[in-house]
Design goal:
The complex is a heterotrimer of chains A (267), B (271) and C (308). Chain A is of the alpha/beta class and 267 residues long. Helices cover 37% and strands 25% of the residues of chain A. Chain A has one domain: P-loop containing nucleotide triphosphate hydrolases (Rossmann fold). In chain A, the strands form two sheets. A six-stranded mixed sheet of chain A has the order 6-7-8-3-9-10, with helices on both faces. In chain A, helix 4 packs parallel to helix 7 and helix 5 packs across helix 7. The chains are: A alpha/beta (267), B mainly alpha (271), C mainly alpha (308).
Chain lengths: 267, 271, 308
């Protein structure tokens, strides 16, 4: 896999790296789910992780914010280094909560909390100890605008988050992730539970967000990866097969395996 | 179905005989309960005060402890601890209440008397405390079930925002499980109000209009036991009082159950 | 964007939040300990108090005015017979009701009402069942203060437990099993008899044991129907009287049961009787623990062996 990274590196040497997997591996108990992954995540770009079901793309994504720490028996190997402070996110002494405050996440199915729209967004600020009401209001408004939801909900901020439509709920979850000014946002198949119109609005939003924040997205939809990402990583059974600029990966893949998957001749 | 109809039928029919002799106004507002004396008074308030006082003591123990245990087991405890604690709680809930009553009388009361010597041998306090311990398993176990039922996706959402376990438990999981936790509390209240043997054994049976748990007192339930133990003839007014008392008790618990039902409907979670 | 100098502030907040976390972890264990310790104390205290009284004679003697001669013979025999009646009444009725509600009953407002009713019944205090039995079995039906009245009272009491357990066990059977059976041309009754009941039997058994364990310890409703507390004779053994009418003599015999015997001893002032109460209580607790333990173990086994 080292060559995959190396062959592309020259093409965008001038880009800043936000995070980087070095010899990264992951075990669920005795089962090795990921092995030997080396991959950069470029600053303020969208990086898509694609591959067939079970290839480990979600597992990789959830390693970035240490979600695996929630369940017993999981084990990381290697490093995920975050810049600019050169911190190894997986290091024992690094608190997973601190990692999650720097790296937000949006899930596959919208999961608004059983609270009002306002409180859903304010939640990530409250866990950071923010109590000042006007500051909270400002930040919530700002985040809702950032998630293109403000105009739809500004008159009903006290409604339950669950009363929104599916697409709105997902944008609410994006607003929640945005509120705390994260450095990276992880998207785990964010549109797989949504209809095409809602999907389009989320995709548009992601494209806008990359101005401000680094994005890592898992998707099972190759057109989606092609539409919104700058870089694409193709994974297969726990390994990184190919990584490169999205256009290149889709137009002129280096590996036969990648080409088979992209052209639908897979399996 | 048949049972409910039968319960209502018997209680209403037998109470009817009672209320034909004693006007309902005297039943509700008299401040004395002396149905077996020549100068008979039938103020249910007296028994109600005993019931409410002992239940309040019990709930002050059971609701906080039960809730803490539920949160701990559902959100904090390692898998192993939960696997052992849950069945243990169930065993605890299966201990006959007469045994708890015995324990309150011969163990807890003397212990409390060491701290507070004026405490009478029969008192609502130690009966209430033990009743609380008896109710803990119900509250804990049902609340825990409700919290377990909250989907993992909500927890992950909270953790992904950088929340700690306690923040997740208090601000996301508990609000999401409100209706289940509320029904657990309601069941706890029903148990406390309807508990009989602990009070009959440890709280004494003297009717006493008081809200002071350090006194002895009779409750609706222990009064029924007292009459049933004596040999009043069936059909006498004294005897019919127990049906009137039972009807009051049924109405009380029914109110709580309906409240619980309404709460469940009102706050039904849609995940 | 988060500045690196913010990190220190963030770390402080995290440290504070985590301190609360750790505090609550300890609080949880302490709360659990209150329950565990109370139970341990209760158990050990009763064992110490009562152990001296537990010998063969304690099981074979009748209650007596002299504490050291008093035993629980009539109590445990009574408990056994009452439980026999309870089981015979509650199990068939409860299982039938559960099966009917799950497999036969149409889903309409009536079944909704019945459903609410069953949940409500579980919240009715046991002493109210006692009053029902007093009015209905003892006087209306004229069963008197007998084993039959007591057994039926407790049966009514545990009926909701059995019904709920039956329904849950049946609901755990996947729909494909039913469809498979119907696809072979089976009638509803054949499906129930050949598939639903056998596959749910372990779950039903668990519920029955839990219900019976509850019934064994119930005191209040039995006191309410006016069970005597001083019984120095045994009821006739089941089905031993002169046929045909004598066969049912045992059902109408007066009786006492374990918890009543214990209550009787507890309410006596002499210390020697308190010892007897402790001994009886200890045996009673062992009985309920054994029954509930069996049920929990059964359920645990069941969960492990689920094959669909």
């Amino acid at each position: 896999m080292n060559n995959a990274t190396a062959s592309n590196a020259s093409a965008h040497a001038n880009l800043a790296i936000k995070a980087e997997c070095r010899n990264f591996g992951f075990h669920y108990g005795d089962f090795q789910a990921l092995k030997d992954i080396n991959m950069p995540v470029y600053d303020k770009k969208v990086t898509a992780l694609i591959g067939p079901s079970g290839c480990g793309k979600s597992t990789l994504l959830r390693s970035f914010n240490r979600m695996h720490d929630l369940y017993p028996g999981n084990r990381y190997q290697g490093e995920i280094i975050m810049q600019p402070d050169n911190t190894n996110l997986l290091a024992q002494e690094v608190d997973p909560i601190e990692v999650r405050m720097r790296i937000s996440m949006v899930f596959q199915k919208p999961n608004p909390f059983p609270k009002s729209i306002f409180e859903n967004v304010a939640y990530s600020l409250r866990v950071r100890g923010m109590t000042n009401k006007s500051e909270l209001e400002d930040r919530v408004q700002h985040s809702l605008k950032g998630a293109a939801l403000w105009n739809e909900v500004k008159h009903r901020l006290n409604d339950l988050g669950a009363n929104l439509s599916g697409g709105q709920q997902q944008r609410l979850c994006i607003a929640r992730a945005l509120a705390a000014d994260p450095e990276i946002i992880l998207f785990d198949e964010p549109t797989s539970a949504l209809d095409p119109i809602a999907t389009a609005s989320i995709e548009e939003l992601i494209t806008e967000l990359k101005e401000k924040v680094t994005i890592l997205i898992v998707t099972h939809n190759m057109q989606q990866a092609a539409r919104i990402s700058d870089f694409t990583a193709y994974m297969y059974i726990g390994e990184l097969v190919e990584f490169g600029v999205t256009d290149q990966v889709f137009v002129k893949p280096q590996k036969k395996q990648t080409e088979d998957y992209i052209t639908g001749r897979f399996g | 179905m048949f049972t409910t109809a039968a319960i209502v039928y018997i209680l209403v029919k037998e109470s009817w005989i009672f209320f034909e002799a004693v006007p309902i106004r005297r039943f509700l507002f008299d401040t004395q309960w002396t149905p077996l004396f020549d100068d008979a008074h039938y103020g249910i308030m007296v028994l109600l005060s005993g019931t409410l006082t002992s239940s309040a003591v019990a709930l002050l123990v059971a609701i906080p402890l039960g809730t803490i245990i539920a949160i701990y087991l559902s959100e904090f405890a390692p898998f192993k601890v939960r696997e052992i604690a849950k069945p243990f709680l169930e065993l605890l809930g299966g201990v006959p209440t007469i045994v708890y009553g015995y324990f309150a009388l011969v163990f807890l009361t003397p212990l409390l008397q060491k701290i507070y010597p004026e405490l009478p041998g029969f008192n609502l306090l130690s009966a209430g405390l033990i009743m609380g311990v008896m109710i803990i398993p119900y509250v804990a176990s049902l609340s825990e079930d409700a919290m377990r039922a909250v989907p993992m996706a909500l927890r992950e959402g909270s953790y992904a925002m950088g929340a700690t376990r306690l923040q997740t438990a208090l601000r996301v999981v508990m609000p999401a499980a409100t209706s289940g936790i509320a029904s657990a509390y309601i069941l706890g209240i029903s148990r406390a109000v309807g508990e009989t043997m602990i009070l009959a054994v440890a709280a004494g049976m003297q009717p006493n209009l008081t809200f002071n748990p350090a006194e002895s007192g009779a409750t609706i339930t222990s009064y029924i036991v007292q009459v049933a133990l004596g040999d009043l003839p069936h059909g006498s007014i004294g005897y019919q009082t127990i049906f009137a008392a039972g009807l009051s008790l049924l109405l009380l618990t029914l109110t709580f159950n309906l409240l619980g039902h309404w709460l469940r409907k009102r706050f039904r979670e849609v995940y | 964007m988060m500045q690196t100098q913010d990190i220190q502030a963030i770390r402080d907040i995290i440290r504070r939040a985590k301190r609360w976390d750790a505090f609550f972890g300890v609080l949880g264990i302490l709360a659990l300990m209150v329950g565990v310790l109370t139970f341990m104390t209760l158990f050990v205290d009763m064992a110490i108090q009562g152990m001296g009284r537990i010998d063969a004679n304690f099981f074979t003697n009748f209650p007596s005015r002299r504490a050291e001669h008093a035993g629980i013979l009539s109590a445990w025999v009574g408990t056994l017979l009452v439980m026999l009646v309870t089981g015979l009444a509650a199990v068939p009725l409860g299982v039938a009701a559960g099966v009917y509600l799950e497999e036969y009953a149409p889903k309409n407002w009536l079944t909704d009402v019945i459903e609410i009713n069953i949940t409500n019944l579980a919240g009715v205090p046991s002493i109210v069942y006692g009053l029902l039995a007093l009015g209905l079995f003892v006087y209306q039906f004229g069963f008197g203060q007998s084993i039959l009245s007591a057994g039926l009272t407790l049966a009514l009491l545990i009926l909701p437990v059995v019904i709920v357990a039956t329904r849950e066990a049946i609901r755990a059977i996947p729909q494909i099993i039913r469809e498979g059976s119907y696809a072979c041309g089976a009638t509803t009754w054949q499906t129930v008899k050949d598939h639903i009941l056998p596959y749910s039997s372990a779950g039903i058994l668990t519920g029955v044991i839990i219900g019976m364990a509850r019934a064994i310890g119930e005191t209040a409703p039995i006191i309410t129907i006016g069970a005597l507390t001083f019984i120095a004779f045994l009821p006739p053994l089941p089905f031993t009287g002169v046929p045909p009418a004598g066969l049912l003599d045992w059902l109408f015999a007066p009786f006492t049961v374990m918890p009543i015997q214990m209550f009787n001893w507890t309410s006596r002032p002499e210390a020697a009787f308190q010892t007897n109460a402790a001994a009886a209580g200890f045996i009673l607790v062992l009985m309920t623990l054994a029954m509930n333990g069996t049920a929990i173990w059964l359920r645990y086994r069941l969960r492990k062996n689920i094959t669909w």
